[in-house]
Amino acid sequence: MKHTKKFLFFLLFLIRMFSPSSVQAALKTSDLETVPWNAVAETSMIDENGWLQSMCATDQYIVCLINGSKKTTKPDTLIAFYRNTTDASGNPVEQYSYAFHVTETDYEHGNGMTYNPNTQEIAIAGLFTNDSSNKGAIFIVDANTLKFKRKVTVGNGSLNYFGIDYIPENDQYVLMANRIADYAFVFTDGNFQITNTLNLRLSYSRSSFQDFIVSGDSIISIPYMQREGFMNILDVYSISRQQRVGSYYLTLPGHDSFDVEPEGICQLEDGHLLMASAIIGTHNFKLYEAYLPLVYSITSSVENGTITESALEIPQGESPTVTYSCEEGYRLKSLTVDGQELNIQEYPDSYTFSDIQADHTIHVAFEEIPRYTITTSGEHGTIDNNPTALEHENLTVNFTPEEHYELTDLIVDGTSVELEDHMTSYTFSDLTSDHIVEAVFTPIPSYTITIKAKNGIVEETLATVYRDESYTTKVKPEKYFTLTRYLLDGKEAPLDKKNGNITLKNIQSDHTITLIYERIWLRVLILICIFIAAITILFLLLHIRRMKKRRQRARELRKIRLENRYFFQTMDELEALENHLKENPEHESLAEETLEQLIDDLKPDKKE
User: Fold this and answer.
1) CA within 13 Å, CB half, 169
2) pTM for this one?
3) Would you place residue 22 in the very low, low, confident or very high pLDDT band (cuts 50, 70, 90)?
4) What is the DSSP letter of 13?
């Protein structure tokens, strides 16, 4: 539970940190190593025994704290220098020149300080506790007079803080705890109530910290001890990634040896940095300034999906694209950019920030796609068991009747649908709700087939056949018998195949089948007899025809003899011809032509 609360605090911090109201540009920290630092002023510490410890910038002044003593409660000195070229009354002044100073309170080393423009106050974080009542204290000073106002104890007072910065956009303080807490960063609200702690275990990698500023997601720290010849670097930590993301070598101009020690850093305007550094062996310190390019951040978050990782250093004017995709079974629910919900139809899988000039947030939420169920039922058959599908998908419900059953009704959501031939499925298109499907299966009508046979052995005299089925008789003919014809319901039916049995197709009623088998040799014998009889009849018909023709010729000759004696003189010729035919029957056709010619010459009209 303890870790959960910490995580929630940190999450709330990030949400607030990158809320749409925060448009402050961040610094391009990767340029810290190459950016030039230029000296802009050098001034006295006033207290010859004091030492520069921290600085901050108010609306009117650059304020530096000079620690009077490290081990005593001697009052420290706050020195104000003009930030601008005019004072609060509008009178011209030299920028960074001395304005005034106040020496009245011991700020316990005063290692860090920051300005809250909302309250017009300066908050100073001590480092040591020469006075035990100051443990964990933050000292509050009026920003215009530099007069001490009050002190606030952060947490339970168990830790001292020696670095502090204020983020106006979030009304939030960021403090750095001492080495006991591994130099952890502590986040508070505007009333110094702790909201989260970010422990980076820094004591194992850095041994001295001077000051820091917060810019966007970055904490820029100067753990710097130039005077000892090492650690002349700036460190950058990422709040969201909770780790150090860069270390950059720092060289201040005009000093060939390690005779400077930077003690304070602040940001005047976006990208304009100011650093205060003590000069070893003197009672003076210098102010250095540098300009870093501005970058912006896009903080991305997603629910139930993936999204392009948050981008923390996007140069001004670029147009980055953030892409996102959902987990399986999810769909895009909402797209929120800088707190404003956009039309997801216009940005189904990505969003492009055009000409970026500020920090942005983008949050994508994917919702689980509703899954709908088809409640199914059906007796005397099988049907898909309550299938499911995602919204707007198509879903097919399959069903199959048991053997000898058929689908006679399909009820969808209480209404019968029109059945198609051999229907075995029903499809729901573009699902948007649950449905109910009931398949009604009824028995297929059955019919009785009665089988009889003449000269055959019936294996199955009665058969039950279902509608639309086919049936083939099971009859074995007697030896030397073959199927020659059959009767269907007492009527002669055409016999398509003479294979001993017949098949009825697409049966729609009861039937009686009578198969008639006949001997194989008897049929052949009958055919032979019929053939012989046909030949004999044909021969007899030809013979009769020839006899009739001869009788007709004889009658014609007798008639000629009776009508005209003139023709008798040819009798000898006719007799001779007849004798010739008897001796030479092969000349019959020639003799017939000669005889016909003689008869023709003997006709009355020829005589005349």
Assistant:
1) 18
2) 0.56
3) very low
4) H
